[in-house]
Amino acid sequence: MVTRDTPWPEGTPCWVDLAVDDIDRAVAFYGGLLGWNVQRGGAEVGGYSLVVHEGANVAGIGPKMSPGVPTAWTTYLATEDTDRTAARITAAGGTVVVAPMDVMTLGRMAVAADPAGGVFGLWKAGDHTGFGIANEHGTVVWNENMSRDYAHNREFYGSVFGYRYGDIDDGMIKYATLDLPHGTVGGIGELPASLPQEIPAHWMTYFSTPDIDADVARVPGLGGTVAQPPFDTPHGRMAVVADDQGAVFSLITPPPTD
C-alpha cells in the first residue's frame, strides 16, 4: 500500500477518472464490483464524484467534457507546470486535446494524445494532490501505455517526461517499465498483432482485487462484459473487462508477498 498527501513527482501516474454519460449507473456498477464508496459531487463541480477508500481519494467519476467523447478511464500524469509540459507534448509530436485550464483551486489540468493516439491527462496539484492511496485492493495498482507504434511512443514519453525504460522482452511482446529517479511508475508496450485493429492506442488502468475470478464472474450480472477472462502472469492473475457503459479497464490479483 502507498499513501500520499503531497504532490506526486513529475511523470508519475497520479490520478484516474472515468468520463460517463450516466454517473448513477457508474456508481452502481463499481459499487457492486469493487465495493466503492463514492462521495457525490454537487452542481458546482458538474456532479464530479470522488471514490474514497479508507478516508483517501482513489479515483474520480464525472460527466463527459463534451458530446461524442468516449466513455473511458483517463490516466493523469503529474506535472510541475501544465503549460510547459503541454508545450513539450506538441514539440515531441503529440497533440493537446484540451488546453491547460484551472480547476478551481484543485489544480491545473490538460488532456493530450501521444503520437499513436493514446489519450492521457496532465495534472498539476493544487488542493487536490491526486491519489491519496494506491496499491491496495480496490484502488489503482498499475497504469500502462499500449500502442502499435511502440518505438515512437518510447521516444515521445522519454522526451516529454524523462522516462528511462526497463526493457522486458520475452521474444513475444515488446514491453518496458517507465522508470524515474524515484522508481518504476508504470509500463509501456506494443499491442499484440493478434488483437483487432479497431482497438486503439490507450492508457490502461489496473485495479487490484483479492479475488479476480469472483469479481470477473460478477461483471456480466452488473451489465458489463469480459474482454479477456482471468489469466496467470508472473506479476499476478489478470483480466480485462468493460463496465456497463463501455469503459475498459483491467483487474489484477497480485501474487502473494512474503
TrEMBL record:
UniProt signal peptide: none
Pfam families: Glyoxalase
PROSITE patterns for the chain: VOC
Alphabetized CDD domains for the sequence: SgaA_N_like
SUPFAM superfamilies on file: Glyoxalase/Bleomycin resistance protein/Dihydroxybiphenyl dioxygenase
Annotated ranges, domain VOC: 12-125, 139-254
Protein name: VOC family protein
Organism: Streptomyces catenulae
